[in-house]
Design brief:
This protein is mainly beta and 84 residues long. It has one helix at 47-55, and strands spanning 3-16, 19-32, 62-71, 74-75. Helix content is 11%, strand content 48%. It has a four-stranded antiparallel beta sheet with strand order 2-1-3-4, with helices on one face. The longest helix has 9 residues, at 47-55. The mean pLDDT is 95.
């Protein structure tokens, strides 16, 4: 199958007044063309942060500390806002 989206070892942190909060720690998954994927988990498990990171909608206090998000072989984390 043709891979459409590839999330590799995604690590996201947030700067807060109390210090650094770990939001995602090594999230990895693929979505192939034609697949439908759902994220399931408990409250606070990182579903929304994962989606916001893929769409580059994180708040200014977010730090993408590691990983890549490849969409059609283009790393979305390396694009500027105009390219997104």
């Amino acid at each position: 199958m043709e891979r459409l989206l590839e999330v590799k070892d995604l690590v996201v942190r947030f700067r807060t007044y109390r210090g650094i909060v770990k939001a995602l720690n090594g999230v990895t998954f693929d979505v192939n063309k034609g697949e439908i994927v759902g994220l399931a988990g408990e409250t606070g498990s990182g579903k929304t942060v994962t989606g916001f990171t893929i769409m580059r909608l994180l708040p200014p206090n977010a730090i993408v500390a590691n990983g890549s998000i490849l969409f059609n072989d283009t790393d979305l984390l390396k694009l500027d806002s105009k390219e997104m």
